[in-house]
Design brief:
Blueprint (H helix, E strand, L loop, with lengths): L2 H13 L15 H16 L8 H11 L7 H8 L8 H28 L7 H19 L22 H4 E2 L4 H6 L4 E2 L2 E7 L5 H14 L4 E5 L4 H13 L3 H7 L3 H13 L13 E5 L7 H15 L5 E5 L15 H19 L2 E7 L18 H7 L2 E6 L2 H6 L1 E9 L6 E9 L4 E9 L3
Parallel strand pairs: 3-7, 3-8, 4-5, 4-6, 6-7
Antiparallel strand pairs: 1-2, 8-9, 9-10, 10-11
Helix pairs in contact: 2-3, 5-6, 9-10, 14-15
Length: about 450
């Protein structure tokens, strides 16, 4: 870190004084710059007009605080002498942000060390308390806002009104569903499918995972019920078009599987998926153990280790997730609220769509119709969800290879249709040939 670069950063803050709140004097290694910066920052933050002092005002301020006369007028003038016409913003901005993030993180780590050192290592409650404080310190350190735009959208700016559907929508792979939802699942949303045991909740989620990946999106499928291998077998049959009855045997042939995967990645696809496939990760957690924190850590792990951002996060399924310490898992409303709000927050923080499933109330098992109030803990999960869909599969429909999805809640879409009908291919476990069913039927 050179003094000249610190001088550039010092003047960058004077140019963009909103950074005063993020940068502390001790970030500067040069003692003279540190002293002058603190004088200006204190004056700026304590003022009512929030105007950066001019050069003569700065000289007067420094003289006021510099009791030992270490900072000369010539030094202050030299420090303030930066012509940003000689520097591109693209050169300064990323270096400045990197410098701030680095120092903020170091500061957070040092604060964390102070919070945890000297503790009785065997006192569980105190250690847990300290760990919470450490997390808070680190979160505060790495989640600082350095980019403009934190005020939200400006109503008077026409650009703010563009819904950017091509960026914010993730296709379901089903034409009727995408038509009803104006393009598929919205990013930053929490979406729920509800059904009876054996109604195809996992198959529905797996079909959506495969469709998302084939459309070019990166998908994380978290399984809490089936093992990773069982889930991979189902998804592999769907995506590689290997009959499920032959999958176990064929998967033993590594050269065959390598060739099938290569063909899939090179495949142009049909009219829906004419793009390079995205990545699909399958992660298993034992039932009742995966918490909101665990899920978010996994999303971050994929970003850090694979260098990829998740677009579609699928949880199979919400009711068998674990809760954080302090949440009474026996109180269904509180558990449902904690998990649904937590998953929606992950969707918002990481700009992805979350899809999960939940069981329907026992008295509605196998029914040919359902409503939103048939969801256990519906007040918590249903109220939080941006969309809720019912999976309807009666014994007769199962025999005929038919499925229905009924929309139970849509935040901002309108439709004349109550249900979408699907055919089911038992050989490849695929839902296909979707069509509308009018609400009057």
């Amino acid at each position: 870190m050179t003094t000249n670069l610190e001088k550039i950063f010092f003047n960058w803050i004077l140019k963009y004084p909103e950074y005063f709140k993020n940068v502390y004097g001790y970030y500067f290694e040069n003692e003279d710059i540190k002293f002058v910066y603190d004088c200006i920052k204190n004056e700026y933050l304590s003022s009512t007009d929030k105007i950066v002092p001019k050069q003569k005002e700065i000289i007067s301020l420094v003289k006021l605080y510099d009791k030992e006369n270490k900072i000369t007028t010539d030094l202050i003038k030299a420090l303030l002498k930066i012509d940003f016409d000689e520097y591109r913003d693209e050169y300064v901005a990323p270096r400045f942000k990197s410098w701030v993030y680095y120092n903020s993180t170091i500061s957070g780590l040092m604060d964390s060390y102070e919070d945890i050192k000297g503790l009785d290592k065997t006192d569980f409650n105190k250690v847990q308390e300290a760990i919470s404080k450490v997390r808070e310190n680190i979160d505060n350190a790495i989640n600082i806002q350095l980019d403009k735009g934190s005020l939200g959208l400006d109503f008077d700016d026409p650009e703010s009104h563009d819904q950017e559907l091509e960026v914010n929508k993730i296709t379901s792979g089903f034409k009727c569903f995408d038509a009803i939802t104006e393009g598929g699942f919205d990013r930053k949303t929490f979406n729920v499918f509800m059904g009876s045991p054996g109604s195809g909740k996992s198959l529905t989620l797996q079909n959506l995972a495969v469709n998302g990946a084939m459309a070019g999106y990166n998908v994380a499928y978290i399984t809490l019920e089936l093992s990773e291998k069982k889930s991979m077998k189902r998804v592999g049959s769907m995506r590689l078009e290997i009959p499920i009855s032959e999958y176990t045997e064929k998967s033993k042939d590594k050269e065959y599987m390598k060739e099938r995967i290569k063909e899939m990645n090179e495949r142009n696809g049909d009219s829906l998926f004419n793009t390079k496939p995205g990545k699909l990760f399958i992660k298993e957690y034992p039932s009742g153990t995966a918490t909101i924190s665990d899920v978010e850590k996994y999303v971050k792990q994929v970003r850090e280790e694979a260098g990829l951002s998740i677009d579609l996060l699928i949880i199979d399924y919400i009711q068998i997730m674990g809760t954080e310490k302090g949440v009474d898992r026996n109180m269904l409303y509180l558990k449902g609220e904690h998990l649904s709000v937590g998953l929606r927050a992950i969707a918002q923080r990481h700009n992805l769509a979350v899809i999960t499933a939940t069981q329907i109330a026992k008295e509605k098992y196998g029914a040919n119709d359902m409503a939103l109030n048939d969801m256990p803990e519906s007040k918590a999960i249903a109220d939080t969800a941006d969309s809720v869909w019912g999976i309807i599969l009666t014994p007769l429909m199962k025999a005929e290879g038919l499925y229905h999805w009924k929309w139970l809640k849509l935040r901002d879409c309108a439709t004349d249709y109550e249900r979408i009908a699907f055919k089911f291919n038992k050989e490849f476990l695929r839902l296909y040939d979707d069509s509308y069913i009018n609400s009057t039927l």
